[in-house]
Specification:
Length: about 130
């Protein structure tokens, strides 16, 4: 499990469908996915038995209609921001101890003509050494 998997599980439990963490599906496989990707771990501090840092998880909301992409992205960000994230804290090699979200914004129109909105979830994590 990863931070992206934890955020995707949180979204699925909040009744958002078609969440993917490993690959951006083609328009033929899924017309309107939510794709959750994870950046690299960035260390903030290191102690004798653990290190603390952050992982940025990007949530991409893909929809056929611009207004739908925006409204789903806003609702998903609100769900993540307001959620009790403790049940999703176990992220495999690390443990999420806090989250912060950015405001959803328009990213692009993809190659199949769908609208993509995105927001970031900055996960503060602890890794055992």
């Amino acid at each position: 499990m990863s931070c992206a998997d934890s955020i995707a599980s949180l979204l699925a439990d909040a009744h958002f469908t078609s969440c993917f963490t490993k690959v951006l599906p083609s328009a033929l496989d899924c017309g309107e996915p939510i794709v959750v990707t994870e950046g690299a771990f960035s260390r903030g501090s290191r102690l004798a038995e653990e290190e603390r840092g952050s992982v940025v998880v990007t949530v991409l909301v893909v929809r056929e209609v611009m207004a739908d992409a925006e409204s789903v992205a806003v609702a998903a960000e609100l769900a993540v921001r307001r959620a009790d994230w403790e049940p999703y804290a176990d992220a495999g090699s690390c443990r999420i101890v806090g989250i912060d979200t950015s405001t959803p914004s328009f990213k692009e129109r993809d190659s199949s003509g769908r609208y993509v909105w995105e927001f970031d979830v900055t996960c503060t994590v602890v890794r055992s050494l």
